[in-house]
């Protein structure tokens, strides 16, 4: 059985996971500089070690209740089309190894774009972890807008 490692993070009390090989780094939250005329789920940009990095609010993208961003929030940095992009999460606390038998396919009730970025449902003890592909969360149009920033 193949084992895979996932970075586990929280949004609104729910746990999500993303394959560790897609994550460049996890950093503390930094206030983003607003950019005009961008989609509302883009918080803005930050300077991360000399790289201008667009920051996406996963809560806004997923239409979850937006709470005030706190110092305890984290930013998960991935490489998207040769550009660093950050995703704000409530907490990114651990790396978890899961066996293939602990992962089920997404439920059939998911249709449309959600079906593309939810790659599986992880079951660890009594917990359910929604496994995401952060590279597929954004539409092609949204990716192009981020590239243009």
Short account of what is shown:
Keywords: Chemotaxis, Cytoplasm. The protein has 149 residues and is mainly beta. The protein is built from 3 helices and 11 strands; from the N terminus they run E-E-E-E-E-H-E-E-E-E-H-E-E-H.
Secondary structure layout:
Layout: E1 3-11, E2 14-19, E3 23-28, E4 42-48, E5 51-57, H1 58-61, E6 74-80, E7 83-89, E8 91-99, E9 103-104, H2 113-117, E10 118-124, E11 127-132, H3 140-148
Parallel strand pairs: 2-11, 5-7
Antiparallel strand pairs: 1-2, 1-8, 3-6, 4-5, 6-7, 9-10, 10-11
Throw out a few tags for this protein.
about 150 residues; mainly beta; OB fold (Dihydrolipoamide Acetyltransferase, E2P); five-stranded mixed sheet; 3 helices; 11 strands; about 50% strand
Explain what you see.
By secondary structure, the protein is mostly beta strands. The chain has one domain (3-148): CheA-289, Domain 4 (OB fold (Dihydrolipoamide Acetyltransferase, E2P)), CATH 2.40.50. The protein is built from three helices and eleven strands, in the order E-E-E-E-E-H-E-E-E-E-H-E-E-H. It has helices at residues 58-61, 113-117, 140-148; strands spanning 3-11, 14-19, 23-28, 42-48, 51-57, 74-80, 83-89, 91-99, 103-104, 118-124, 127-132. A six-stranded mixed beta sheet has the order 8-1-2-11-10-9. The protein has a five-stranded mixed beta sheet with strand order 3-6-7-5-4. The radius of gyration is 15 Å and the shape is globular. The relative contact order is 0.25. It comes from Clostridium formicaceticum.
